[in-house]
Specification:
210 residues, single chain, alpha+beta, 40% helix
Length: 210
Amino acid sequence: MRSRPVAFVLAGTLGVLYHALLRRPILTWGATEAEAASRLPGDELLEGADGVATRAIGIDAPAAAVWPWLVQMGPSPRGGAYTYDWIENLLGLDMHSVDRVLPDFQHPQVGDTIGYGSNRMRVERVEPHRALASRSEDGNWVWAFVLDEHSGRTRLISRNRFRFPTLAARIGMLAMEPASLVMERKMLHGIRQRAERLALATAAQPAVSS
């Protein structure tokens, strides 16, 4: 019976160490202090969130080359999520990341819905080449992308905001945070690679004379 108190103490110690040393880097991977602390488009969709993750990446391409990959994200026939498809498909999400721009999904509108398994996300904010934000049907999750372009380079910021209606949800999310970093880091790199290729291809196209 002594093993049970020891296990509780060990779990508590690991939890304290995670909060003190690892949780902030996991939740703010790639983001500057200013980006992590700033109020971004989409934050208004879930005020007083119980959890916030702000991750970011620099892209050597203008926002116009990043935007197409964001707006077409989602399960087939959409463009996937540019991460580990095999992991997502183990969860039945039907994700198939593409390397081409899909014209049918380039014009998102407020009110559009996209299904992610049992979750359905409703597009709530669209600012072309600047911001795209969606909210889950139950209102407990908001996912926003923000593009900040300077001198032809773009900072892509991904912000997730969560509300945890139960203790079980709160505990479960703590376990999911490291896994979400693995998936989202791959996604951000995938978007960067595609956007930079698109920018190079666009720059290589001959100008059309009038």
